Amino acid sequence: QVQLVESGGGLVQAGGSLRLSCAASGRPFRNYAMGWFRQAPGKEREFVAAISWSGGRTYYSDSVKGRFTISRDNAKNTMYLQMNSLKPEDTAVYYCAADSAHYGSDRPNEYDYWGQGTQVTVSS
Hints:
Radius of gyration: 13 Å
Structural class: mainly beta
Distance between the termini: 40 Å
Largest sheet: 7 strands, mixed
Oligomer: single chain
Order of helices and strands: EEEEEEEEEEE
Shape: globular
Number of strands: 11
Number of helices: 0
């Protein structure tokens, strides 16, 4: 089992920045590729970014590429999502997830463990 806890969400004006964190406990963090997803009201869960177990490979959705940066610190069992140039359409609940079988995926059903989510609200 892996337990994931997100933090760092909040209310920010358009153009601002936030840094999300995902703290992991349980099985060794370095064994898992990790991902960020988000879900806005009335919409399906959407892929944001993913990172391989070593951090050597990163993947982004087109909607956040160039604005968001995913990273991880295996010594601290923590993953991050630096979000810059935020837009109102980035408003959603953001979830982190752990994947034991892939190098990083954009498919939610390939992830084994999920956090409870953290709300990000971007005002215009």
